[in-house]
Amino acid sequence: MKTFFISQGLWELVEYGFVDLTDTNEEADARLKETKQKDAKALFFIQQAVHETIFSRIAAATTSLEAWQILKKEFQGSSKVITVKLQTYRHDFETLSMKGNESVQVYLSRVSSLVNQMKSYGENISEEIVVAKVLRSLTPKFKHIVAEIEEAHDLSYYSFDELMKKALQVKGEVEQKDTKENFSGRSRHRGGFHGRGREKTNEESKLFMALFYEKDASNDVWFLDSGCSNHMFGTTSLFKEIDESKKSEVTLRDNKKLKVEGKGIVSITTSQGTAKILQDVVFVPSLSHNLLSIRQLMFSGYSVLFDDGFCTIKDQTEQVIAKV
């Protein structure tokens, strides 16, 4: 949500609010009116993003700041609780290390999830610290990657994104070839899903199929894909907002090119009934299924974990969004 508000130029209003002055001139009145309109827009977005079971808690809020503070206290807790959680997260970060049988993608997802949790509770942790931690905690089979990065780059300017791309580029060289895993899951809740999929390590990216149930739509098939850089949807009805002037092309693994006919915002309902907003989703009409980018989910603060034969997606509050 924070990223969404920043993109709309509303985050400062949501975080700090505004002062409603009584003694103003005509020019100040006009600015105040514009500010109130922006704040009402931000409050509307918050109200639209929460499930009806949560909406009652913010229904009386008259400003976006008031609604945001209610939700923040509800899901993060008091300042004392935040301090305790941060201490736990700091300890987890200090002791974090890659498991012997863990893939680099799973480990980087764990790191990303933990760092995003720390940031969501106000921790200011730099990219340099995160990159250095990852390089120190990789298993010995990645020593050549660590040496190459440390020799070729100034770590003060080397981002976690660059590290992840580099690690994923060479994962096929250090991970076992031609392994397969079968995944299955089922949820009885509205907004849940079932799915199945397989994993191959050669040239084929990890691909997982999950079936979500939308409240007001027929069943749609979604693919979780580590290969695509953006979420790609083939159905306009799923978009809350779309800018059809954003046209381009995407290239598939078989070098087939598809036309992008727009970019926008999509809201999906989780198995818990809460609404989650996906930004920068591209509209590709010729797609038969919708693609959720694992990379974009991680960069948006979600964690994507592969463990014990399951793929689990969690948000910044550790709420399970989907499990396959």
Automatic annotation (TrEMBL):
Residues 222-302 form the Retrovirus-related Pol polyprotein from transposon TNT 1-94-like beta-barrel domain. Residues 186-195 have a biased composition (Basic residues). Residues 177-198 are annotated as: Disordered. InterPro entries: PolX-like_BBD. Pfam families: Pol_BBD, Retrotran_gag_2. This is Retrovirus-related Pol polyprotein from transposon TNT 1-94-like beta-barrel domain-containing protein. It comes from Erythroxylum novogranatense.
